[in-house]
Amino acid sequence: MHMVDKSVKKTLAELLNRPLSIGGKAVANRLWLAPMAGLGHVAYREVLAGYGGCGLMFTEMCGAKAVPTENPAMSTMFRWREEELPRLVCQIVGATPKDLIPAVRRVEDEGFFGVDINMGCSASGVVKRNSGAALLKEPEAAVAAVESVRREVSIPLFVKFRTGWTPDIQPAVDLARRFESAGVDCLVFHPRIAPDKRTRPAVVDHIRAIKEAVSIPVFGNGDVVIPEECLSMLEKTGCDGVSVGRMAIARPWLFAEWTSGFTPDENIFRDYALQLADTLERTYDPIRALKRYRLFSVFFAANFAFGHNLQTKFLGARSMDDIRTIISENIRPDMRLNKRPNMNLHST
Length: 348
Description:
This protein has 348 residues and is α/β, with parallel strands linked by helices. It contains 14 helices and ten strands. The longest helix has 16 residues, at 268-283.
């Protein structure tokens, strides 16, 4: 495991455990799970909850048009465990007040901690419907969406957004101010332009520009892999907290590690891989469970020096029994770990 200086651990834990409330509701700490399509599902969140340490969790991206009629017992994305609702935010993607209003009403009625409007996803299927990051091209539409949601619900309102479609930070700064005026309770900012699929480093200084523009909490997101990077983001930008995505899939115990000094044992990777397999199998039908495990395995394999080989084996699995066999035959305590999981394995 990556050895972290004691002073870094202490300072980081102190910063992450400072009291914070969002929209009048207290949150446990300032280290949160980022919303991730196909990865932040109810089965993964159950495993994450077992490690502890995560201040707020976010669902996968849920389509606003589908949410009002979704059956949580059957839905792949709009699904949760009752016990996680007090610290679970539902992320909604939609373009217009007409689509968003019925969805956010349902989210509030179901008892979620809050609702998050996605303005960061640049997948072509989302953008062509004028949703996600497409809203950043139309500031008036983005603000109208926020205002309509704020009028409808009293739960905390979040917006996850990116820099925009050009490197100029000023439009995002202006939009952040307008979001605050419209009643947003917290901004989660990923400092990359919308078309960037992580080919360039996140522009961390842009988080500071957003933070300095508003008085509501601003959480930073992007390229936080090791504790030193989390501490650096907090100290350099003044952001109120950090939202972790891909790394949370690779090592979900990092929340407990960074906030409360949890120390993983030598079998933690094997145990995690098995536990997620069991939870997915219990939660979803066999085809969907296997599909989601394969997606997870790309991030999990990135932990290891020879992760490509492990990833190939997982992607070739035809059943959860195959998955368990691969785990038992290949994941050992003496495997060489990457200090930084190999992000080149990550295609999303």
